[in-house]
């Protein structure tokens, strides 16, 4: 018989960043040779053998992994499932200007009076936020921005065109906790 299959590293939820190398190992505490191993991701077999080498992962590797250990003793076939491992791959922040590196932008700064200086900052400053919070904030901000953009009157004549340049890619993503404040600025390219 075979029993007590485990995955190492063995946390029930395992979070890694995109680009990190990931290798999972399946082992059993009890089992008569020969023991064979297979790997399931979201219930579908993806590999065979005691090691699952995912290489440098990306978000497509996220899912629930489980290893299956089997052996046969005479006519009886035995099987042991490991506990599930939820692998979450978080994307690395990057600045994407969509190919636009300079130009004129019309910008609104709701709640700010006067003629503020407007700068576009790399979204990598938000990388210090937790993944779920960041996704929620981006979804909410996108929905509100789309609604305001499409349902609020066009820019009043008092709004100027602001010449802006996109910043270069940051040398390194900020560490967790480095984001001190944020302000939403609505912009659309004008030329």
UniProtKB/TrEMBL annotation:
Signal peptide: none annotated. Keywords: Membrane, Transmembrane, Transmembrane helix. It comes from Tichodroma muraria. The keyword Transmembrane applies. Residues 1-82 form the Ig-like domain. This is MUC18 protein. Gene3D superfamilies: Immunoglobulins. It comes from the Eukaryota. InterPro entries: Ig-like_dom, Ig-like_dom_sf, Ig-like_fold, Ig_sub, Ig_sub2. The chain crosses the membrane at residues 124-146. The lineage of its organism: Eukaryota, Metazoa, Chordata, Craniata, Vertebrata. The keyword Endoplasmic reticulum does not apply.
